[in-house]
Design goal:
Blueprint lengths: L2 E6 L15 H8 L2 E6 L4 E10 L7 E9 L5 H16 L3 E3 L6 H5 L11 H12 L4 E5 L2 H12 L5 E5 L12 E5 L6 E2 L3 H34 L4 H11 L17 H4 L3 H6 L2 H19 L17 E2 L5 E2 L1 E6 L8 E3 L2 E5 L5 E7 L3 E8 L6 E6 L4 E6 L6 E12 L2 E15 L15
Parallel strand pairs: 6-8, 7-8, 14-20
Antiparallel strand pairs: 1-4, 2-3, 2-7, 3-4, 3-5, 6-9, 10-11, 12-15, 13-14, 15-18, 16-17, 16-19, 19-20
Helix pairs in contact: 4-6, 6-10, 7-10
């Protein structure tokens, strides 16, 4: 059985000639800017804000539709079909879909944007919802809000809402409430930030323990398959992996989940990438022990071949680039042979290892002579250089390692690559908007 009731913004039933009881909840929804409320159960209840006008020249009035049904297959599509029939055929009005405040209604049943936040964030949310927590988030668009609600309605959420203000009594029982506004990525609101931080620490601890156990097993296997001593293996891994350094603190302007998308070494451990990197390195060490070959290293921009560069005097000069742009390796994209790196507040980070004293990073925009350069002194054979005031454009990124003699930089090794800088301010998981069906 399906039931559809239309209310005006004061909670009075529409078209009932004065009959029917007012619904105070609907009036409070209106003042809280609620655009959608959905409760899942034996009977699903869907409440949606919409506008309709009595004539082409009349003003579009504000309404709420309350839809109750046991049929959840193609719920949004069926709801919009039933509502259109009621409004246009029975009441002789026309639906208004051009104003911003009905964007949620308009997007129902249409292709949604990708779900904001990383898979790791989604695991945290699912775990918290299963434990009975009430979560609030901010996202940048109605489509992203719908995508987020739809994802968790399929699993651990029973009640979800999208509203201008989620901090109202009528939404206190919502498992997941989402605000649309000037938010970056997936932004936790209120107490949700604390809950997410605590849950992330718990899950990181479990993940690190699992990865460490795996690494221990691989090392035992490695010791049985190579003639390298424990000291040689340990030193080789330490030299090849520059991921155990203390990361810089996040900017005060960053949202808590922007930090998850940046390539800090500790956070790589949290998302499991450390296990993969270490295991790959261990396999390479086996090859080095058996074949006596240099350990291969490939940076995210594909800069390097065998991890070494011949210096001007014929000596071996090492220059290894491990991360670029504060973007996880998995998030880098390639188009027509050009690597793409997302800018973070107009900056691009380059870090790695070298046995030289100074590293210089230079970005030369294609077709222009003005270059942006930054120089950093190497500390413990590691460097971290930041290029600032960059604009989205294509150019050549050049990394040089060498020495400073009387303030004159002398390059001993260098690597360069054409890259395409793309604008920041995208999803927290680093992905661009993409409609899916």
């Amino acid at each position: 059985m399906t039931e559809l009731t239309i209310y005006d913004s004061h909670g009075n039933p529409y078209g009932e000639s004065g009959r029917g009881r007012p619904d105070e909840r609907i009036e409070n929804f209106f003042f809280g800017g609620v655009k959608l409320y959905l409760k899942r159960g034996s009977q699903t209840e869907l409440v949606v804000f919409f506008r309709a006008r009595e004539s082409n020249v009349g003003r579009a009035e504000q309404f709420y539709a309350v839809y109750r049904t046991r049929q959840t297959s193609n719920l949004f599509e069926q709801f919009k079909s039933d509502l259109r029939h009621r409004v246009e055929t029975e009441h002789g009005m026309s639906l208004e879909t051009s104003s911003d405040d009905v964007a949620v209604y308009s997007a129902l049943g249409e292709g949604h944007s990708s779900v904001p936040g990383s898979e790791f964030n989604h695991e945290l949310i699912s775990s918290l919802l299963r434990s009975g927590n009430r979560l609030r988030f901010g996202v940048s668009s109605p489509r992203k809000a719908l995508a987020l609600c739809s994802k968790f309605l399929q699993g651990s959420a029973q009640r979800v809402a999208i509203a201008d203000n989620t901090d109202i009594d009528e939404l206190a029982n919502c498992d997941l409430a989402v605000e649309v506004g000037s938010h970056r990525g997936l932004e936790p609101l209120g107490d949700t930030q604390r809950l997410m931080d605590e849950q992330r620490r718990r899950m990181e601890g479990k993940l690190v323990n699992e990865k460490v156990s795996t690494i221990k097993g691989e090392i035992q296997d490695l010791r049985s398959k190579t003639s390298k001593s424990d000291t040689q293996i340990r030193n080789r891994i330490k030299r090849e992996l520059s991921i155990f350094e203390t990361p810089p603190p996040p900017s005060n302007n960053d949202s808590p989940f922007d930090a998850l998308s940046k390539v800090s070494r500790t956070q790589k451990i949290a998302v499991g990438a450390i296990g993969v990197v270490v295991l790959i390195s261990l396999i390479a060490v086996v090859a080095a022990g058996v074949l006596g070959a240099p350990l291969p290293f490939v940076g995210p921009l594909g800069f390097l071949g065998d991890g070494s560069e011949s210096g001007a005097d014929g000596s071996d000069t090492e220059l290894e680039i491990t991360t670029v742009g504060g973007v996880a390796v998995d998030n880098l994209t390639e188009e027509n042979g050009t690597k793409q790196v997302q800018l973070l507040n107009g900056t691009l980070n380059v870090s790695g290892t070298t046995n030289q004293d100074v590293v210089r990073a230079t970005f030369n925009p294609t077709g222009r002579n003005d270059t942006i350069t930054a120089r950093e002194t190497v500390q413990n054979e590691s460097f971290d250089v930041t290029l600032s005031d960059l604009e989205p454009e294509e150019g050549e990124l050049k990394i040089e390692a060498g020495t400073d003699n009387d303030s004159t930089f002398e390059s001993e090794a260098n690597e360069s690559k054409t890259i395409n800088l793309i604008a920041g301010g995208q999803d927290g998981d680093g992905t661009q908007d993409e409609d899916t069906t």
